[in-house]
Write a structure and sequence with these properties.
Helices cover about 80% and strands about 0% of the residues. By secondary structure, the protein is mainly alpha-helical. The longest helix has 29 residues, at about 35-65. The protein is built from 6 helices and no strands.
Length: about 150
């Protein structure tokens, strides 16, 4: 029997929607009249758990096709950050602004963003420009100073 949907991610995405659709229909038709709250709970759980996991799988698959390692690092950072924000906005903690602020502060102070800037953005650009080792060292030190100032 021929498959009607050739792309496995499209097929998985379709299959992902069926259980949440069923659950929504059930809460809309049960005896509990608090439909808005029930729908919100179902949708937020779906997005936070199933959909965010699915997006992680899709992003990993997309990254397999990125030829430039620096681009892959940047895209992985972007995907992971976006999924993290999505999860923050759909978890049980309703203080979304504080959660996202904490995520941003953590990125700025953990060294992850500094390393990303140095390794995946600045170093390749300076290499393409034919920058001297002295200029590379100066720019790296300047980035250190900027990120040290952010940490204060």
């Amino acid at each position: 029997m021929e498959k009607k949907i050739a792309d496995p991610f499209v097929e998985k995405g379709i299959k992902l929607v069926f259980p949440v659709t069923r659950e929504l229909l059930e809460v809309l038709n049960d005896d509990n009249q608090a439909n808005a709250e029930q729908v919100k709970e179902v949708v937020l759980h779906f997005v936070n758990d199933d959909l965010s996991h699915f997006l992680g799988e899709i992003s990993a698959k997309l990254l397999e096709n990125v030829k430039d390692a620096n681009h892959a690092v940047l895209l992985k950072f972007a995907f992971d950050t976006a999924i993290g924000i999505l999860k923050a906005y759909t978890d049980e903690d309703e203080n979304n602004k504080a959660q996202v602020n904490e995520m941003v502060n953590s990125l700025l102070t953990s060294g992850q963003l500094l390393d990303l800037a140095k390794v995946a953005i600045v170093a390749p650009a300076l290499d393409k420009a034919g920058a001297s080792d002295d200029l590379k060292a100066f720019v790296a030190k300047a980035l250190d100073v900027v990120f040290d100032a952010i940490k204060k």
